[in-house]
Amino acid sequence: MLKKVRSPFAGKPATWQVADHNGAPAFDVQPRVLTPVRAMAVNWLTGLGVVAGFGFGLVGVASAPNPDSGMLTAALAVPVVGGFVLYGALRSLLRKRVRLMLTLERFSVKSLFGWKHYDRLLPHRFALLQHDWAQAEQEYEEFQAAQAQMQRKVIRKQRWYANSFHLSFDYLGQRNDIMTVYGQKEAVAIATRLKACDDVLDALARRGQGTPLTPADEWGDQPGAIPETV
User: Fold this and answer.
1) How many domains does the structure of the chain reveal?
2) What separation in angstroms does the CA of 40 have from each of 168, 186, 203?
3) 128 and 165 in contact (C-beta within 8 Å)?
4) Same structural domain for residues 108 and 54?
């Protein structure tokens, strides 16, 4: 019994093999990412929702004619459980979709002002760079920690920019930021997927060198070959 082989482009980020305006193979990659600012908003809104839930529950218990321990437990437990649900929903809702296209000749990024194109035939690479504000964030945290230590306090803050990365299309050695991604795992997955699409297109352009997607990609057009039909 034959089993379906999993595509190397399955999973996230969402990737489709399409055809460009000339009918040549291309890749449409559409990652949905959190930026550090959006990740902060998720945490802030979740905390606000949990506090509001606690307040609403405690007011309900206080106004009940015969409150009992079960009502108090529910008033405390429901906001906590709801906080996890709210956190997951907000992480999905606040993600930003970025559309990227790779063809044999171009790498394109869609923005609010239209498409921005780069010549893929020139030397290039995809690179991950730590967020530009990571160093400033670290220095500010060290300053706050020193102040807290003088007051015999212990503080621990979430590091947003230290866990954020710029995905850059290095074009002739020059940096061109494509997107900012919160979370190293997601950033690496997107960069790896783009490199894989880039390598496949290079292989198809060379016809027989590199890694083909299908057995048919291993062979160039031969004299007298029968053309494919749809």
Assistant:
1) 2
2) 23, 17, 41
3) yes
4) no
Helix (H) or strand (E) holding 171: strand 164-171
The pTM (predicted TM-score) of the whole model is: 0.80
- Convert the pLDDT of each residue in 108-132 to its tens digit: 999 888 999 999 989 999 999 999 9
In a domain, 171, yes or no: yes
On whether the CB atoms of residues 124 and 118 are closer than 8 A, the answer is yes
Q: In what order do the strands lie in the sheet with 106-111?
A: 14-19, 25-30, 100-102, 106-111, 114-119
The strand pairing partners of 32, in sequence order, are: 97
Within 65-169, residue ranges assigned H as helices are: 69-93, 134-150
Residue 208 region by backbone torsions, left for phi larger than 0, else alpha for psi between -120 and 50, else beta: left
Strand partners, 109: 100, 116
**Run of H or E including 39:** helix 36-63
What confidence score (pLDDT) does residue 140 get?
82
Pick the last residue of a domain from 93, 108, 128: 93
Q: For 147-173, give one letter per residue: b (16+ CB within 10 A) or e.
A: eeeeeeeeeeeeebbbbbbbbbbebee
181 plus 131 within the same structural domain? yes
181 shares a domain with 115: yes
Q: DSSP letter string over 2-30?
A: --PPPPTT-SSSEEEEEE-TTS-EEEEEE
